[in-house]
């Protein structure tokens, strides 16, 4: 990577309205402030009480837009806002997955370079591992994966995270951390802080959340080595302002964990559940072992594969909210294969590829392969499909990101931000 490369960003044909949705998302979060304290308490109590069980139902949806199908807003709103602890404790199986999927803030895949990247964004190297919520409450700590299953149940040095002889803590004390569990060093790397010691951070900007994360986590003792009352070590990740030096540090810097791409956070973004264009993931072969998706055997298929959800009227859609329509499945296939609404199906993208008109998906050449893995709870998001398509045909490169920063610096001489390193 050349830190002083000043070539102009390569101009791409519009394949998405990601920038427009970033602007709308910032406007929407300023207009719609919900009761974040109640949301945090509900999540803390429910994450401890929910038990994984059986019967199958339907997958969930997330966020994005292109060609859209009618929204299923009432149901998703009920799950994320109106669910209280008593209702949540009764959820089972797929409902658990649905509910927990809506609690995490999920980054979109970067398919265009955001405006004001150097001024308005942070960047850090994403740890490879299992994404999960970690909740400490009532003298215990529980981590739950994105599908709702328990990863670990353990004592920790987080507030109210362990039953210790010399202190019990307030009944209102609990913490909710957004983490990635890194198997190799058995460490929870904290990528965001949702609630700390009973104080909700849902309605705080990323700038404030990252500041608290770095200061509070260290002073709690959670970053200490494992002990009797603290089974797993926690660690903050180094977070940089996304100027030229910060991007270079995140991309090439040495970290104690295996990298799986870069994460970009808009400094003004609140912690919002579901997919958001105010958090983005990007990767290439230099900062991730897995850039192109592999099949069940761990090999890269000759054709890109996607997972879509079958809806009413044979429609095939992504996991976004509202979902993006990719096409319709032949009625004969549905009948012969015994498929039902809500099934997750695998497709290959044929030689016809994906066609776009004015930033909207016009046509997708889909070849039906069969049902997806039963353990899978979600269809692919639209941004993931596009990122994988771009990686195979015209990838967004690190030099494009640097060129965008340099181009912006040429237009307005902005003083360099101070970097935040945890």
UniProtKB/TrEMBL annotation:
What SUPFAM superfamilies does the record tag this protein with? DNA ligase/mRNA capping enzyme, catalytic domain
Q: Can you say where in the cell this protein is located? A: Cytoplasm; Nucleus
Is Nucleus found in the keyword set? yes
Identify the residues that the record assigns to the Snurportin-1 m3G cap-binding domain, covering every copy. Answer: 103-279
Alphabetical keyword list:
Cytoplasm, Nucleus, RNA-binding, Transport
- GO-annotated molecular function: RNA binding
List the GO cellular component terms: cytoplasm; nucleus
Biological process, per Gene Ontology: snRNA import into nucleus
One matching Pfam family: SPN1_m3Gcap_bd
Keyword Coiled coil applies = no
Which CDD domains does the record associate with it? Answer: Snurportin-1_C
- InterPro entries named in the record: Snurportin-1 (IPR017336), Snurportin1_C (IPR047857)
So which domain of life are we looking at?
Eukaryota
Q: Which family does it belong to?
A: Belongs to the snurportin family.
Q: What does this protein do?
A: Functions as an U snRNP-specific nuclear import adapter. Involved in the trimethylguanosine (m3G)-cap-dependent nuclear import of U snRNPs. Binds specifically to the terminal m3G-cap U snRNAs.
What protein does this entry describe?
Snurportin-1
The scientific name of the source species is Gossypium raimondii (Peruvian cotton)
Instruction: Tell me the lineage of the source organism.
Output: Eukaryota, Viridiplantae, Streptophyta, Embryophyta, Tracheophyta
């Amino acid at each position: 990577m050349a830190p002083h490369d000043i070539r102009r960003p390569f101009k791409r044909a519009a394949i998405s309205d990601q920038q427009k949705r970033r602007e709308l998302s910032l406007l929407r979060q300023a207009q719609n402030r919900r009761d974040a304290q109640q949301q945090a308490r509900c999540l803390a109590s429910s994450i401890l009480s929910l038990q994984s069980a059986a019967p199958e139902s339907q997958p969930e949806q997330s966020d994005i837009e292109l060609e859209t199908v009618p929204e299923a807003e009432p149901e998703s709103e009920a799950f994320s806002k109106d669910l209280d602890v008593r209702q949540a404790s009764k959820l089972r199986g797929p409902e658990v997955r649905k509910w927990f999927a809506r609690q995490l803030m999920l980054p979109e895949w970067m398919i265009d370079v955001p405006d004001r990247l150097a001024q308005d964004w942070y960047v850090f190297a994403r740890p490879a591992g299992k994404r999960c919520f970690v909740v400490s409450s009532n003298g215990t700590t529980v981590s739950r994966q994105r599908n709702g299953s328990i990863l670990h149940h353990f004592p920790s040095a987080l507030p109210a995270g362990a039953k210790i002889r010399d202190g019990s803590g307030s009944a209102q004390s609990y913490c909710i951390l957004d983490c990635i569990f890194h198997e190799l060093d058995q460490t929870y790397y904290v990528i965001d802080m949702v609630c700390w010691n009973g104080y909700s951070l849902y309605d705080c900007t990323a700038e404030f959340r990252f500041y608290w994360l770095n200061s509070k986590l260290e002073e709690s003792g959670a970053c200490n080595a494992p002990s009797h009352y603290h089974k797993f070590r926690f660690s903050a990740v180094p977070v940089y302002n996304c100027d030229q030096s910060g991007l270079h540090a995140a991309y090439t810097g040495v970290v104690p964990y295996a990298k799986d791409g870069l994460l970009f956070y808009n400094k003004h973004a609140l912690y919002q559940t579901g997919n958001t264009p105010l958090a983005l993931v990007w990767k290439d072969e230099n900062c991730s072992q897995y850039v192109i998706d592999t099949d069940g055997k761990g090999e890269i298929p000759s054709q890109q594969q996607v997972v879509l959800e079958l809806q009413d009227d044979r429609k095939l859609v992504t996991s976004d909210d509202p979902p993006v329509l990719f096409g319709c499945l032949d009625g004969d296939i549905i009948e012969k294969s015994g498929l039902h609404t809500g099934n997750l199906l695998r497709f290959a993208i044929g030689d016809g590829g994906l066609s776009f008109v004015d930033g909207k998906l016009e046509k997708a050449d889909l070849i039906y392969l069969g049902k997806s893995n039963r353990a899978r709870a979600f269809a692919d998001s639209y941004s993931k499909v596009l990122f994988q398509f771009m990686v195979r045909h015209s990838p967004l490169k690190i030099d494009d990101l640097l060129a965008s920063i340099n181009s912006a610096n040429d237009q307005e001489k902005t003083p360099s931000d101070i970097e935040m390193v945890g």
